[in-house]
Design a protein that fits this description.
46% of the residues lie in helices and 16% in strands. The chain has helices at residues 3-11, 26-32, 51-64, 78-86, 100-110, 133-139, 149-153, 155-159, 171-177, 189-206, 217-226, 236-251, and strands at residues 16-21, 39-43, 68-72, 91-94, 141-146, 166-169, 209-214, 230-233. The protein is of the alpha/beta class and 256 residues long.
Amino acid sequence: MNALEFARLVRDRQQAIGYWVVLDDPIATERLARLGYDYVVVDAQHGTLGYTGIRNAMLAIDAGGTSAAVVRVEQNDPFAIGRVLDAGATGIIVPLVDTAEDAAAAVRATRYPPAGRRSYGPMRSELRVGPAPAEANESVLVLAMIETPEGLANVTEICATPGLDGIYVGPADLRLAVGGATASDPAADDAFEAALVKIAEAAANAGIAAGIHTPSGEVAAHRLAQGYTYATVSCDLVHLEQAAKAHLSAARGEQA
């Protein structure tokens, strides 16, 4: 699907399933992008890719032909956001959004004047997103991460931000935010699940998309059934390690 079709899919709160890339390997990314995921996220915050790697990953996703290219930017900064949009991202995920003001700043960075403050220089994106400013504004998604105590407390106001297309839960940081001692602390399960319900309800009440990162397809299906409208499945590095470990155990005749 093209950028506008993907944007409408997410904005209409239709279900979408994505994948997460942290490795700087465009050949692997292209193969993943051929599997049928609705979108593939390139992680510029915690991934191993620099700008060239991000650009090449988006080329690979487009070559795959079935997935939209989304980038989690490293920070809520107009330069960081504008650069990946110019390189062809169809959407951005903005980390560490604490307030409605943070969300509004992210929206402004994705929109050309007079709707925002994005500088015009679509080096690659003009080939596929827009290129007219109004068309680009309509085609680009902006998604705010809810993952901090402040973001959770302000989630209703964040979701009401004009121009924000959706929110995205960072489960590891959110678990820490609700009192987990680690990113997987089971002692925080009840508080974590309550937070997920609160976030999904806030998004639904505002009429915007609600997304979440998940460790597996099974958990993704559960979150979609729970009311989330899009879900991302694990990532390439984790799956590489899991597959290699499973094959090693099988070769040694060890029980799973």
